[in-house]
Every structure is written in C-alpha cells, then in structure tokens.
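Thread title: Can someone regenerate the structure for this chain?

I was given the following input by a collaborator and told the matching structure tokens would be attached. They weren't. Posting the sequence so someone can regenerate them.
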Amino acid sequence: MTDAEACQGSTAFHILLVEDNSLNRELLGDYLRHYGYEILTLAQGSGFFLTIEQFQPNLVLLDLGLPDVDGYQLLEELQQQPHLQQLPVIVISGFAFQEEQQRALKLGARHYLVKPVSLTKLIKAIEAEAYTSSP
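Best answer:
Regenerated them for you:
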C-alpha cells in the first residue's frame, strides 16, 4: 500500500487540478490517478468556485498563468470565503521569481512548485496536506 492509499482510507482523496496546458493537465492527472487520487481537471479559472462546491476537493493544484483569470485572484477570493479558507492549495507555476512565490504563499497557498515540477516533490506536498487535513 502506498502512502497515498494509506491516507485515503475508504474514500478517495479528491484533487482539483486547474491547468491550462492540455499536455500538463493530462500527464499530471494520469500520474495522480495512478497514485489513487480522484482527479477533476479544469482548463481555465472560470467555473472554479462552482466546481469546488460540486466536486468538494480535499486539495487544489493551481496554475497561476491561466488564460481567463489571474490565479492570484483565485487565491485571494478563496481566502475571502470562510468555508474555503482551509482548503489547501498547491501552486504549480512557471513563474519562478521569489516575489511571485511569496505573493502566492501570502495569499494562502500552502506550497509553491515551479514548472517543470518534480513529481516526487508534488506527491510529497500532496501527502503532507492529506495527512494534515485528515480527521
């Protein structure tokens, strides 16, 4: 049993993946499904909050450079909604400057991974949040 399976129990750990690049979205989604996570993907930020309400993710993987909305804006809006403030967000972005990383972390992101992302680091970050958010 993998660590991901151990932390899930009988219900799958739900991850919302918001990534505009179709290849990245497909590869990350397939990789995380292989680890036993239930993945729902969005190619853009529109519908983000409706999808959260319907899918009830345990964690969000968020690209900041979306075509229709600023990922920073989504982070800020999450923090303004009391029932979503504790939803863990891991940013996966091509924005590599320290200022960008610090801005995302100040807006509530729990981790910031720079593309191309290390899949090992991604799984470790997800597992850290899965264990933290487990009852």
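The CA atoms of residues 88 and 132 lie 10 Å apart.
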